[in-house]
Specification:
Length: 510
């Protein structure tokens, strides 16, 4: 199943009053790009004006004239047979002043020369101070870097490393006009940094309509938000909030999830953050509204079973699913995970219950409560006890607490099992406490009789004992997309054993 193209990366060049827009071909997400659309609006206007549609896709440049004193915004979108790319990403803003286009942040007044002289003076002083401080620090390192005469070890230069870490302290919120920063004090949480974008939304602008999902420690509700990003209109969103009995650890997980999502750029197969309410309780995380709920429930309801998590009486799910539909669920998930792995993010809870299904059965990876951003390293080691989704957890993570992107690949193999058994429970009739021992002994789930061996071989490769022997998400994305395009029969639902997968219950993290 394909998707609309990725957002177009746009740049603006100026010469006099002439504006030149340039862009590169974005990822087409499964279908050739047929048209570029160019939009313009005045700053503070809500509506975009379409300037032109370019059907010659080899042309990736557009020139127009600007009017002196006007400030404009531009965006270019790409279109394929599945739709048009986002108009909210990569918006470029310029202002024309005195016949010359300037980016607003680079404008100066008539006293430009005097200001430049003052800036140069300040810079010279700062350079001198920096050089002096660097020399002092170098001398200190040289002295402190010498061996301790009593123990023979090098003295640690990092003062933070010598302090005791208090893992019991809650997250703290910095009260600024920008989006708040959560300094989660604890070795199991990633360092957080304030983003440039404002995410905070006024609580009185959020109107909760109804609860549509319930987990062990959180609710998900449908809501409307007024005046989001100064839009002067209502937008439908989903709101994630903690239950009354949630622990401080659950709150930290939600804060960590929020901060991680702030770092992600919009991707068609990853849930998008819309905003948050953090300056007063309760904590609210606002994400895009995806109408058909979680994939696990979507699969189960298609064969008449109940979804105990997502319950929206106003949304009707698919009553039956074809073999082709099941195969096409797989590649967008691999595509979303490929993006996350490129950002060095380990999900650690990849399962059908954490995939959302939108219009056109577009799947989006969600729920980053257990995710970790590795930054410079490629390995995460679990240091604290907590929730563990045993049936989806990789061999090395289950036995040794070691996670990599290839650990998520193992989970993807289990997710494929859920999809292709139409919401079946992994390791049926095996107690979660027995799974670690059986996996260590070499046990893997057997092939369901209605699956082709080529499809089952992909699962087995995901469950290889050595993480390096497993396919990458880029490999899986290509493989599953090719299988979705082929007309071969990989899933024979006439041989599907309904009795084997009938007695299932909603699986929370075990």
């Amino acid at each position: 199943m394909g998707d609309a193209p990725a957002p177009v990366q746009l740049t603006v060049e100026a010469k006099g009053s002439e504006i030149t827009l340039k862009w590169k071909e974005p990822e087409n997400n499964g279908a050739a790009i047929t048209k570029y659309l160019i939009y313009q609006r005045n700053v503070n206007d809500k509506e975009w004006k379409k300037l032109e549609g370019i059907t010659d896709t080899s042309k990736q440049e557009y020139v127009l004239k600007g009017e002196e004193g006007k400030e404009y915004e531009f965006v270019v979108t790409a279109t394929n047979k599945y739709g048009e790319s986002s108009k909210t990403a990569n918006i470029q803003k310029v202002k024309i002043s005195g016949g010359t286009i300037k980016h607003p942040e680079n404008q100066t007044g008539s006293s430009c020369g005097a200001l430049h002289a003052a800036y140069i003076s300040v810079i010279i002083v700062l350079v001198i101070v920096t050089v002096a401080l660097s020399f002092v620090l170098w001398r200190m390192r040289k002295r402190l870097g010498e061996k301790c005469p009593r123990c023979g070890d090098l003295i640690a230069m990092n003062p933070v490393a010598a302090q005791e870490t208090d893992n019991t302290q809650p997250s703290s919120v910095s009260q600024t006009n920008e989006a708040p920063t959560y300094a989660t004090i604890g070795r199991d949480y990633m360092p957080l940094h304030p983003p440039a974008r404002r995410w905070e939304i006024r609580r009185e602008h959020v109107n909760i309509i109804k609860v549509i999902g319930k987990g062990a420690f959180s609710h998900v509700a449908q809501a409307t938000v007024w005046n989001m990003r100064d839009s002067q209109e209502y937008n439908t969103v989903a709101v994630k909030m903690l239950k009354a009995n949630a622990s401080e650890s659950d709150r930290k997980d939600l804060l960590s999830e929020l901060e991680l999502m702030k770092k992600l750029k919009p991707h068609p197969h990853v849930i998008k953050l819309v905003g948050c309410v953090t300056k007063s309780e309760p904590l609210l995380v606002l994400i895009e509204y995806v109408p058909f709920g979680d994939l696990l429930g979507y699969l189960r309801k298609s064969r008449g079973l109940n979804d105990t998590y997502f319950k929206d009486p106003d949304v009707n799910s698919q009553t039956s699913l074809t073999a082709d539909q099941l195969i096409r669920f797989a590649w967008p998930i691999a595509d979303g995970m490929c993006y996350l792995s490129s950002k060095k993010i380990i999900h650690r809870d990849l399962a059908a219950r954490n995939i959302l299904v939108g219009e056109g059965e577009k799947c989006k990876v969600t729920d980053f409560g257990m995710a970790r951003n590795l930054h410079q390293d490629d390995i995460y080691t679990r240091k604290s006890r907590g929730r563990l989704p045993v049936k989806w957890t990789a061999y090395e993570a289950l036995l040794y607490g070691i996670y990599t992107t290839q650990s998520d690949v193992w989970s993807y193999g289990v997710l494929l099992y859920e999809i292709l058994t139409v919401g079946g429970s992994p390791y049926p009739d095996i107690n979660a406490r027995q799974i670690a021992g059986k996996i260590k002994e070499g046990y893997r789930m057997p092939k369901p009789r209605h699956l082709d061996s080529k499809l089952f071989d992909i699962m087995l490769k995901c469950w290889a004992k050595n993480p390096n022997d497993r396919p990458t998400f880029n490999d899986l994305r290509k493989t599953m997309k090719d299988m979705g395009r082929n007309h071969e029969t990989y899933v024979n639902l006439h041989e599907y054993d309904y009795s084997l997968y009938a007695n299932v219950t909603d699986l929370a993290a075990e």
